[in-house]
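User: Can you write out an input/output pair for a complex, sequences first and structure second?

Assistant: Here is one pair. Inputs:
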Amino acid sequence: MSRVRVLVGTRKGAFVLTSDGARERWDVGGPLFGGWEIYHLKGSPADPDRLYASQSSGWFGQVIQRSNDGGKTWEAVGNKFVYDGVTGTHQWYDGTPHPWEFARVWHLEPSLTERDTVYAGVEDAALFRSTDGGQSWHELPGLRGHGSASSWQPGAGGMCLHTIVQDPSRPGRIFIAISSAGVFRSDDAGTTWRPVNRGLRSEGIPDPQAEVGHCVHRIAMHRSRPGVLFMQKHWDVMRSDDGGESWQEVSGNLPTDFGFPIDVHAHEPDTVYVVPIKSDSEHYPPEGKLRVYRSRTGGHEWEALTKGLPQSHCYVNVLRDAMAVDALDPCGVYFGTTGGQVYASANAGDSWAPIVRDLPAVVSVEVQTLP
Amino acid sequence: MIVRVVLPAHLRTLARVDAEVKVDVEGPVTTRAVLDALEAAHPMLRGTIRDQVTQQRRAFLRFFACEQDLSHDSPDAPLPAAVAMGAEPFLVVGAMAGG
């Protein structure tokens, strides 16, 4: 019988939640790396026992941890992230030039096929790659070398590269997203990049339809249909049917189209999940009701999923990396909150139950489906 | 020279060491030499005490010894003789914060 392993990064350590395929009873492991911020941990699709974790601290900086046994034991690997060549500047919050400074790794994306290859999205925004299991890291400088880079500006959380999506059908095609620059695509394995933000409209920038400068919060793809992308932008839920060449708004009847995560059902490429948040100045759900919204039509038409979720006095947030789906049937959906709850649905969102209620604030949630 | 180093709790956990760490320092006993020896013995500490490129002390850490704050001394200045002789430890201290 299949099992699932939920990898949870929090402000004060990592937790590993495991269950059998029924997903009713859970073992809770952790905290791992207690007291450290764990922005993200993720397993290799090529070897599910190979896990990578980003561990960081305001005191001690960045550490990368690696496990070869599904999270039972860990070893610290390379943590030297040095920008390639001339560092250059981006715009600071006040519009003045500011030199690129490494702060932390936001997101680790293991290769789809090579267990020792893993990408790291970092703040200040850049993409690094390791081909030796995290021992050494090298920037893919073509991204930061794009002509627009000096105009990129940080969002409220810093200028972070937070999303890395690999196209499983087209080796070499990678999408990344930066707050607040937008989405970039490479078709040559990260050597060259171009912005793919046509159709986005952001009122908070001087030219609302600018080529770059959009605060993209998250993009998601279904592996069976990699030309279609879904996006939760700062405001607006968007869809692209041409690999990011153009985007159309699909917010439809959502109560608010602000939010952070977005994800796609494991078996239904037109079934999409978001968590609407009231506004960018009120980072909690509208009406104090925690609701996941599901579209079965690839956007536009959304239904509220509420069974098992708090429907009063709930003022948590769900961060961009804190939602994931498993590959079982029915599809499991998981998300974590800044209030420390991790909710799971074993029936594609129809009903929910907390796996844990009182973790530190959850930053990221990933799921592995194991044999 | 064998130098005793006391690390903050989180770095002891990271390096998988207890209490004091003893490091063998060749040549003059300076902050740089002690940290070089510490990182050679425990590579996972690279970058956690000083920046990997600039070698600057991380902002929220301090270096104490013999009831003195040595944080702003040159990394190449000799440490007190009591540290060099192993009579007193070299302390890496994390700034107290968090309310």
